[in-house]
Amino acid sequence: MGSPTLRLARLAIYFAWTLALMPVQLLGLVLGCTWTSTLPVFYHRWCCWILGFRIRVIGKPTSQRPVLYAANHISYTDITVLGSVIPGSFIAKSEIARWPFFGWLAKLQRSVFVDRQVRSTAAQRDAIGKRLAAGDALILFPEATSGDGNRVLPFKSALFAAAQQGAGVPQVTVQPVSLAYTRLDGIPIGRLYRPFFAWYGSIELAPHLWSMVGLGAVEAVIEFHPSTFLQDCGSRKALADYCYARVAGGVAAALSGRPQPMPEPPGPTPRYAYRAQSVEAIPEAAAG
User: Which of 18, 118, 139, 195 ranks highest by number of CB atoms within 10 Å?
Assistant: First the structure.
């Protein structure tokens, strides 16, 4: 499935574009230039066009800083898709730092590399908290792995503790973000074809990438949900529940084309009524 000619053309242009901008970003980081936070957005937007992704955005990313975006994870392409609209750095698995090429790109975008082992949770939380205390925008994948694109996996709450406000540290805004790959050449992507875009389990990277880049124009829907604060939710578990409910509802709505029940953000006084519907009321997306 897909065109070999299109694959070769897209990959050639992508690598040429990437290799041209890598030294520019590196030089900017060495010199401490402020534009190094926005150049990746420009880079990713062109990558989306090159690779055939057409982005539809619902809502707006918060302008408040520091901010922790909590998004679902489907594929390696999420980096390019989300990076095309969010001027921020990703929180990535530590092994990605050792990958050739993609690891270099992650470092150039000032990614925070974390070890998902339980024994390292406190150190990773502190590393994320340090960046947030500096006023950065970070993008977290709370599922801690990628899913099949049909549903959102449960959110792990441990790293949400980095949003805790400390002495002399500004309050951290947390904004849920849902991402779904919905259409191929204008036709809804059903459950059968979603694995062409979702990279999960034991799927090999190179064959998956080769198959994916030969397809047509892919619509990706990004929805920015109402933001909140850890203090308003009352606990990191409650914060994770709220973010999960919004993201799962956003994915289900994008895939099914129907509005889904989603909770309102907690107010200044902690309210927990939304927790009862955080999982049960979010149906698995219909897959045409």
Answer: 139
Q: Quick: pLDDT tens for 142-194.
A: 998 888 888 999 999 988 988 886 656 688 999 999 999 999 999 999 888 88
Query: Token pair for residue 75?
Result: 């594929």
What is the identity of the amino acid at 273? Answer: A
Distance, CA of 217 to CA of 220 (rounded, Å): 10
Evaluate the CA torsion angle 33, 38, 44, 45 in order and state its sign.
Answer: negative
What DSSP string runs through 181-213?
Answer: EEEETTEE--TTTGGGT---TT--HHHHHHHHT
How far is CA 157 from each of CA 210, 224, 242, 243, rounded to the nearest angstrom? 34, 20, 11, 10
Return the amino acid letter for 245.
A
The residues, ordered by sequence, that sit 6+ positions from 259 with a Cβ below 8 Å of its Cβ are: 253
Helices (H), the chain: 4-31, 39-51, 77-83, 102-108, 121-133, 205-212, 230-233, 236-256
